Amino acid sequence: MGNESLANLMTEERRFAPPAEVVADANVTADAYTAAAEDRLGFWAEQARRLSWETEPTEVLDWSNPPFAKWFADGRINVAYNCVDRHVEAGHGDRVAIHFEGEPGDSRSLTYAELLREVSQAAHALTELGVEAGDRVAIYMPMIPETVVAMLACARIGAPHSVVFGAFSADALATRIEDADAKVVITSDGGYRRGAPSALKPAVDEALTRPGVAGRVRNVLVVRRTGQDIPWQDGRDLWWHEMTERQPAEHTPQAFDAEHPLFILYTSGTTGKPKGILHTTGGYLTQIAYTHHAVFDLKPETDVYWCTADVGWVTGHSYIVYGPLANGATEVLYEGTPNTPHNGRWWEIVQKYGVTLLYTAPTAIRACMKWGDDIPARFDLSSLRVLGSVGEPINPEAWIWYRKHIGADRTPVVDTWWQTETGGIMISPLPGVTLAKPGSAQVPLPGISATVLDDEGNEVPDGSGGYLALTEPWPSMLRTIWGDDQRYLDTYWSRFPGRYFAGDGAKKDDDGDIWLLGRVDDVMLVSGHNISTTEVESALVSHPRIAEAAVVGATDPQTTQAICAFVILRGGSDAGDEDGALVEELRKHVAKVLGPIAKPQRILPVEELPKTRSGKIMRRLLRDVAEDRELGDMTTLTDATVMELIQAKLPGAS
Ligand code: ATP
Ligand code: MG
């Protein structure tokens, strides 16, 4: 990094006030900021009372051994009881917890009473297999209700789960099983993906033969989803339905300490080797339940909530499983891809279930932009009232498209910044309070302390950029990296002692609102200026011909780094640019929006961009291309052929 603070080039003048009907009945008002500012720990103690504790905590935060936090340490609680039983006890047993929509079109709705029965039986089954509190269970599943049941059953008996995204390879699964030292794996024969059954069990079999894994796992519980033929090892492999159906329907939940481990989850690996992030019980559930209530303005009696993430990511853990269910929500769970069997599948689901709150990722929004405005226009989306975004910076133009074409130019859009490590949402507008700015996550939530620091660790003034940092501990913070306290200290707490280093660049605008500028590793140094990839990408996407853009800095003898952009054209690349006139126009457009310093040296139209399986652009591979080097590690990439296509487009490629 250079010494000059990150450039602050983009200016976004559009503002959107919260709609009167949301303001009138908002779950959280501006008072929450004041209350939390006056007494942060008192504020969180109050939020903890949303939960049902077996022993109410009297302590809030123990920060006597920083950065190893303990929250609500003398409280005792059962997470599954909070997510299921208490809603049934309160008379909501008939409320639908999950509307499951399978990719082939099969569907099934589970009430809270049914969920309670399934979770209880699964908890008994795990106990029968000898799983005890503290034992780790790996979960490698498609997006089906049994996945949620499995996670809750683990939580119920105090066995931390480690969910591994179902599309990860046998190798990725093996390293995660080994690192977490899992005793049992829960999987399925397969799931439906892009119109066909896609097997999962064979990857488990393969993973369990790897050195370091062989002999570790006692049992594999297999859910039957597709009915496809799968290999079977007698004694080790057991059918989920055979194991669970014969168990008693009632199970007495036992309370655990607030700091009992709830799960380990490996980060998505956008920047390097995944880290096993450890989350615990009471503080995690407190912040997840509160943020889900506040950011989505959830009314459990009437809302239908849908988060499109996979449960294999933290978004699925916190905002499909634990947050919505702790709050007694009715939610949609969809198994497949957004474009199977047609590009309007998501909007068909919104229409079918009357979805009111939708939470998705910029990558999906940009894909929908690319497919065309006419597709969502064919469906009735009038039930929607709040739209959320997470995972990457959302370009202002994508934000505007989302609000206009999905939200009828009426719904608030909440851009939520957080990480696997933070456990829950940290920076986000509130739908009934915030005057929204397209492309900005804006302000830390009540009870959260975030700021932007310069190289020396000083807070930057409004109007400047630097590094995003969290300045006070928060309830759902990671407790450590599993088995590696030193890496926890080095990665997050050594850059700015006493403060959490998020690894993201950010700026504060003149109003003090926070804008995320992408990974610190992705920031470019051009002629002595730090320029954020996000801002150049957003400038490109603000051109009507561009659907998506990825920008990297390539080593350049004159300017240190030269800006190199890879763009996807709206309507596909057959909308070609043979004479290069469009590229020239795009370069000028960026210069006009951001200033001449940010003008890309090269712009290359491509079909697709390299992305992680969680949908994030992998800029480091594009940097390898731009610098004409051998490509680095591609194991977390969705589709390696994308890189061949891009390389074939380069001038000089054979
Ligand atoms: P790894 O840490 O292994 O490189 P990862 O950071 O992609 O993987 P996650 O924890 O899933 O793994 O992602 C968190 C990151 O995603 C954040 O640090 C940030 O870079 C990005 N991000 C998430 N939400 C937003 C948002 N609303 N705006 C901007 N960036 C976001
Ligand atoms: Mg990260």
From TrEMBL:
CC cofactor: Mg(2+)
Ranges where the Acetyl-coenzyme A synthetase N-terminal domain occurs: 31-83
Entry-linked CDD domains: ACS
Residues in coiled coil: none
PANTHER family according to UniProt: ACETYL-COENZYME A SYNTHETASE, ACETYL-COENZYME A SYNTHETASE 1
Positions bearing N6-acetyllysine: K616
Family: Belongs to the ATP-dependent AMP-binding enzyme family.
Lineage: Bacteria, Bacillati, Actinomycetota, Actinomycetes, Kitasatosporales
EC number(s) stated in the UniProt entry for this protein: 6.2.1.1
Description of post-translational modifications: Acetylated. Deacetylation by the SIR2-homolog deacetylase activates the enzyme.
Enzyme class: ligase
Gene name linked to the record: acs
Positions with a binding annotation for Mg(2+): V541, H543, I546
Annotated organism of origin: Streptomyces carpaticus
Residues annotated as domain AMP-binding enzyme C-terminal: 535-616
Keywords attached to this entry: Acetylation, ATP-binding, Ligase, Magnesium, Metal-binding, Nucleotide-binding
Stated name of the protein: Acetyl-coenzyme A synthetase
Function: Catalyzes the conversion of acetate into acetyl-CoA (AcCoA), an essential intermediate at the junction of anabolic and catabolic pathways. AcsA undergoes a two-step reaction. In the first half reaction, AcsA combines acetate with ATP to form acetyl-adenylate (AcAMP) intermediate. In the second half reaction, it can then transfer the acetyl group from AcAMP to the sulfhydryl group of CoA, forming the product AcCoA.
Residues involved in ATP binding: G391, E392, P393, D415, T416, W417, W418, Q419, T420, D504, R519
Gene3D superfamilies per UniProt: 3.30.300.30, N-terminal domain of ligase-like
Catalysed reaction equations from the record: acetate + ATP + CoA = acetyl-CoA + AMP + diphosphate
UniProt: CoA binding residues: R193, R194, G195, A196, T315, N339, S527
Domain AMP-dependent synthetase/ligase residue range list: 90-473
The UniProt record lists the keyword Heme: no
GO molecular function: acetate-CoA ligase activity
Classification via PROSITE patterns: AMP_BINDING
